[in-house]
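Design request, tokens follow.
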């Protein structure tokens, strides 16, 4: 119920998955308060917010907040909700002469998990930690999971059939979060039905190698917009994905997910997040009990140890079996 007038600025500059993970904050703010909700992000991610009915206005930057600071000052915000918590968002607070509500990034705990200590910690999910930022405004999590809104006028990417459609999001921001191409080929060869590869232009070489080696695989890497990729996921029977943005898009669509983990671990609090009353059967594929894992909270361009066991040792047959169980 509305109780206040004014505007709130929610800040998260990047990236796809993190912005999708912010969606419960946006929804709960809009539904539980009388605030007008604005969002500040990078220009490349602005489309993620444009079709969200809980966002009243989107501001975006290419490189610097100086691009929008004059306009932001004119808005007269009642509050800033800082869901990025970095130097840029600190600069924003200084320029607006406002202190933001924010959350605990748990960086010390993550360091203990990735350092020589290899501490066994299971962090609260990042969505619940994001919600900490709006608790002072008497806004709480509603249990309804993540949101992702596809434009209503988006044309179907492919004809929707009754067949089991499998989407495989093969990308990832860092090499150590992605399966080797040879392992993806092994998995695709064992799957029943058509597999649709999703990814960016940077995944094109891997996708071409996969389609050459495995039958009944369709390459959409670098060919679809983000909204079109989300449409594919919405219409899929299940989604295979690394620990990346498409995993969170799939969770927003309430899809069964086989999430494949390399140097990162679900215990960071970034695993698929579903609505409380709708949790589809899903699986995690990870190599347990490696002394070197997790080695980073983000990822590397190469395995620091040189062996890449966290992905090279992934059991392709087990992943294929997971798919069969979810489709049966």
């Amino acid at each position: 119920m509305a109780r206040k007038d004014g505007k709130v600025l929610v800040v998260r500059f990047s990236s796809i998955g993190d912005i999708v993970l912010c969606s419960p904050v946006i929804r709960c703010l809009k539904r539980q308060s009388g605030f007008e909700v604005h969002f500040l992000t990078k220009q490349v991610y602005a489309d993620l917010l444009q079709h969200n009915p809980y966002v009243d206005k989107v501001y975006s930057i290419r490189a610097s907040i100086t691009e929008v600071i004059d306009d932001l000052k004119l808005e007269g915000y009642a509050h800033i909700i800082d869901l990025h918590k970095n130097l840029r968002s600190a600069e924003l607070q200084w320029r607006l002469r406002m202190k933001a509500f924010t959350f605990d990034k748990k960086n010390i705990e993550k360091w203990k998990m990735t350092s020589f200590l290899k501490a066994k910690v299971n962090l609260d999910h990042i969505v619940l930690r994001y919600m900490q930022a709006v608790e002072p405004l008497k806004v709480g999590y509603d249990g309804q999971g993540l949101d992702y809104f596809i434009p209503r006028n988006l044309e179907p990417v492919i004809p929707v059939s009754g067949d089991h459609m499998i989407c495989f999001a093969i990308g990832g921001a860092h090499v150590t979060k992605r399966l080797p191409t040879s392992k993806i080929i092994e998995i695709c060869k064992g799957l029943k039905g058509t597999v649709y590869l999703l990814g960016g232009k940077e995944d094109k070489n891997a996708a071409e190698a996969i389609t050459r080696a495995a039958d009944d695989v369709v390459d959409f890497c670098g060919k679809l917009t983000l909204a079109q990729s989300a449409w594919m996921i919405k219409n899929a029977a299940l989604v295979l994905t690394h620990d990346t943005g498409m995993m969170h898009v799939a969770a927003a669509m309430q899809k069964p997910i086989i999430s494949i983990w390399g140097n990162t671990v679900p215990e960071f609090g970034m695993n698929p997040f579903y609505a409380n009353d709708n949790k589809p059967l899903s699986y995690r594929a990870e190599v347990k009990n490696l002394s070197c894992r997790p080695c980073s909270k983000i990822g590397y361009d190469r395995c620091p140890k040189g062996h890449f066991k966290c992905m090279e040792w992934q059991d392709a047959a087990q992943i294929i079996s997971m798919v069969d169980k979810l489709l049966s």
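Comment from the thread starter after seeing the answer: thanks! DSSP finds 13 helices and ten strands in the chain.
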